[in-house]
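Troubleshooting entry. The earlier prediction with iron/sulfur cluster gave an output that would not parse, so I re-checked the input for stray whitespace and re-submitted. Clean input:
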Amino acid sequence: MSVITPFDPWKSKLCTCPFKYSFSPYVGCYHGCLYCYASSYIPRFSEVRAKKDVIKQLNKEISKIKQNKYVTIANSNDPYQPIEEKLKLTREALKIFSSHEFKIMIVTKSSLVLRDLDILKKSRAAVSITITTLDENKAKRLEPNAPSPEKRLKAIKILSENNIPTIARIDPIIPLINDEEIDNLVKSVAEAGANHIVSSTYKVKLDSWKRMKKEFPAEMEKLKYLYFGKGERINGYYYLPKEYRYKLMKKVWENTKKFNITFAACREGFLNLNSAKTCDGSHLIL
Ligand code: SF4
């Protein structure tokens, strides 16, 4: 099986990303986010395992792809799992992509990305850090094993001080859980130095709904009708009603304007709110 694959092979109509490749040295994710989508299609998702001979395979495949392409690391998990500290597979892969002059987008919740600043500084790279709440207790409930919001904000700050283009993913926004934090989230990431914000509302898969319901029963009971009664069904996900999603995304967008920072909504269908050349922030990679 290939280790470099095209991103979004299903070609979702709501995806506005430019063409890119996707790569991850690992299968599964340790962070345990309740709202995770990837756990619905990857078996034994919480058991993180390195792909067999992944670096050898990457070297083989990369020579068949033209240089100067764009790759995101990673899309179905976090490339900075705790075992990455020891195995350093993401670090090795970064060196390889960089030597082939790929444009690289790291997508992570982990401050371990700072270990690889030396490579990132010499590469055509940007880093996208996901942050959903500033409340440490809520983060522990929502993303039990992921690094704290404070560590993620600090990572944005350090990356930006080192002139690495930095994107903040405020994703997902979940009504009654973190929608009241939108103003503060935008302010915090903008002040930390993020260049661009991507945001999206929570789209329900039934396994993530079960986890959310177990941890936040009262809130999910209130949201049930919005998602399963009034909401939309798109590409196998339950979405909030369109007007509700628009209201939430508009709120993020309005806040980004206060800080002169660009914005894009991810897989929502609200192109009029996008204020950057690309939704994922890849225009920042020069
Ligand atoms: S970091 Fe991403 S892939 Fe990992 S559990 Fe959280 S949402 Fe899923």
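This one parsed fine. The longest strand covers residues 166-173.
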